[in-house]
Design a protein that fits this description.
α1 packs parallel to α3. It is built from five helices and two strands. The protein has a two-stranded antiparallel sheet with strand order 1-2. 58% of the residues lie in helices and 11% in strands. It is mainly α and 114 residues long. The chain is globular. It starts with 5 loop residues before the first helix and ends with a strand. β1 and β2 form a beta hairpin.
Length: 114
């Protein structure tokens, strides 16, 4: 499985630090745009990379399906086929998918630790 892109994770980490729904939406829109511009990824990689966005939405007090689902409508059909059922799962937690929150010089950040 592929390693999550640091630049994309940096944006969702910034959204969490700033407690900004607008930043989360912009970060996720960029993620959808990047994924939709290429051939389908391994669904496991996609699910792993979705976890910080879902976690951030929850920490901001928002329903991930409501926030992320609308943005995903602009993406590739294959992405939506992975996203929709994944957003309905109840077992999504950072540690379950190899993620943790760490303190960095910039503040709290998501880090993938397989």
């Amino acid at each position: 499985m592929g390693k999550p892109a640091k630049s994309l994770i940096a944006h969702v980490s910034a959204a969490l630090r700033d407690e900004s729904l607008d930043h989360l939406e912009a970060a996720f829109a960029r993620y959808v745009e990047v994924l939709s511009s290429r051939d389908p990824d391994d669904s496991r990689d996609v699910m792993i990379n979705l976890v910080p966005y879902i976690d951030c939405a929850r920490r901001l007090g928002r329903d991930p399906e409501s926030v992320l689902g609308l943005i995903a409508d602009s993406g590739a059909a294959w992405f939506r086929e992975i996203l929709d059922p994944f957003l309905r799962r109840t077992d999504i937690a950072l540690g379950v998918f190899g993620w943790k929150l760490i303190e960095t010089p910039d503040g709290i950040s998501y880090k993938w630790i397989p």
